[in-house]
Fold these 2 entries.
Entry 1:
Amino acid sequence: MGHRISEAMVLKAGSELDRGVAPSTAAVQAQLKSSEVLHLDESGLRVLGKLHWLHVASTNRLTDYGVHAKRGREAINALGIVEDFSGRAVHDHWTPYFHYECDHALCNAHHLRELRYIETQYGQPWSDQMAQLLRRIKQAVDETKETTDHLSASQLEAFEQEYDALLVEGFSDNPDPDPPPAGSPKKRGRLKRPPPLNLLIRLRDFKPQVLAFMYDFRVPFDNNQAERDVRMVKVQQKVSGCFRTLEGAQRFGRIRGYISTARKNAKNVFDAIQDAFDGKPFIPSIEVL
């Protein structure tokens, strides 16, 4: 009729769709809690002109988004997935995740970027060699997957020895900073360490989590799944700007998670939306391993 759709109609449709996808959202969250491997990530989101956080929990079949004013444990608990998860969580070493008793795996794409930075900015050969080692382990895993589900004991031992030797070389190039001279004013907290030493400590102290993909072929090399799932929402914000209400942002997250899950399961998005309005939302089947 030549009239623009009113804002009230758009809000009403969004509210109805949010209610329609609720059974699917609950089913997806339940399946995520029982999955063997769970990808986690978080990214800043503007709501009411203030920084909030978009949290994603996902697999290659499932996506759940939550929006919260906080980034840490309070938000993670409120979203209600990680607290009840007992599989292996893949993430980028965000410290609050380690408060949960599940197993952990660290994103090696992040490590490769940090190792490249150290090689470029500090010119330390061990960093490039460590990056090459991680890539060689990934290649060995990818090739071995075609015939079996584990590396041989000799391969594991050789890779571990090379990993440990590179850490020794790295620490020799990056000793702990000297303590302040006697009589100088005391400063709170620990001594500031340079980036190479911080990364070396992480690679040493979290070796099982860094190399989890080598020991368990179900674990991916990186956390690209969660990062891809975050990217689309970030694109939406660049186009539309900040959300006007927290309720609207949370509603958007639930609907977007429903759409993402439908796409991952090769479900036509328009059909999935229509099904939700009709009271028959798409619910992914439980994966049988």
Entry 2:
Amino acid sequence: MSFLDGRRYFVHGLGISGQAAAKLLAEDGREVVAFDENPTVVADYARLLGSESYGRSVSVVSPEDAEQALALCDRMVLSPGVPVNNPLVSAARVLAIPVDSEIEAAFHYTNADIVAVTGTNGKSTTVGIVGAILQTAGVSAVVAGNVGTPFASVVTGGDFGVFVLELSSFQLDTISEFRANVAVLLNITPDHLDRYHHSFDEYASSKARILNRSDEATGFVYNADDVACVRISEHFDGIEFPFSSTRKLDVESGVYVKDGSICRWRHGSEEHVIEVGEFVPVGVHNLENAMASVGVATALNVELSDISDGLRSYTPLPHRMEPVRTVGEITWINDSKATNVDATIKSLISIEGGVVLIVGGRDKEGDFAALVPHLERVRKAILIGEAQRVIRAALEGSCELDDAQDMSSAVEAAASYARPGDTVLLAPACASFDMFDDYKHRGEVFRSCVNAL
């Protein structure tokens, strides 16, 4: 049964994605049963429904009535924050009720081209760069998905030619008919293993679902320097657009760095895109994001001049290698979005000179020992959050370590230790939820503490 063949939909999780899906379905005349395990969220949503025209098509159920209501539904729409092993999700499986993501729901309401971007790191930056290039080219496009704007909230809101979607593994876990015209796989490094039975292979398989229902017309942009990405590409039969920051690629179409320039190989010839220095965000990871975006734009047949101008015009997002201020020749950088070990490594690689590193938070089963080879210039690491003990055990002896109770004391400690020419880098390698609402909140607190010095 196709997604829109249903009549009654059970929306599980009433964050912004769940609410957007419920509204989209209700406005299309579907019956919606809405549920969330947080009573405060349910109460707030019930009040919202009272002021919305579609509210009469949505009923809110309590935990004690949820499973009975689910049994009367045709499909479940699952918010990405709800684990797939949640008891109600398990109940849906037993009842043979399909479980879909909000992304899957929205997909059935558009015929526009879809660019779908996933990877452990760099997703938000890449969709932002692609959006900037398409805007420069005069293409009617919107950036949505895990970046903060639900796909379901914009899919019927305008005459868009392209949707550029950031997709997490959690969203990809529950797609069925969804397919992208251009699929992007930036990298795959250990992350969220607590949700994937501690298995990197299972996590990688989730990321590989970015190629769901791909065919010979599908464009696939992937990192040719990432072993897991290359392995996935071996089973792809469409049009490949690999990129590499380390070597020229011997392929029909590809993007690479040569003599300080981003270049692309296309139609048997090499084309200069821009000088690396013309792209504002720093670091090899941002260079890779730029190259992936060139691959996407090439797949969409965007003019080379628009690609170049779009890259030059791109403004970095907050909390991603964001310079906060320079005081006494000490530079403070907010990379709160570095929520896993690989992201922190790439941040460290991109900085010259001495570093005082603020690291820690809620452990996502990261291999913190992988940081050790990249700590040569780290004069002190200041540890915060729940993962202090495990990080200390992994880094002991590799650099000087210090513990801080909160962000304010971490910033004060960094200020007292840093010397002129140093960079103080917030790159936590952990989730933020032990101390903050999310990575943005963590970055905002860091920024506030730095500006208060």
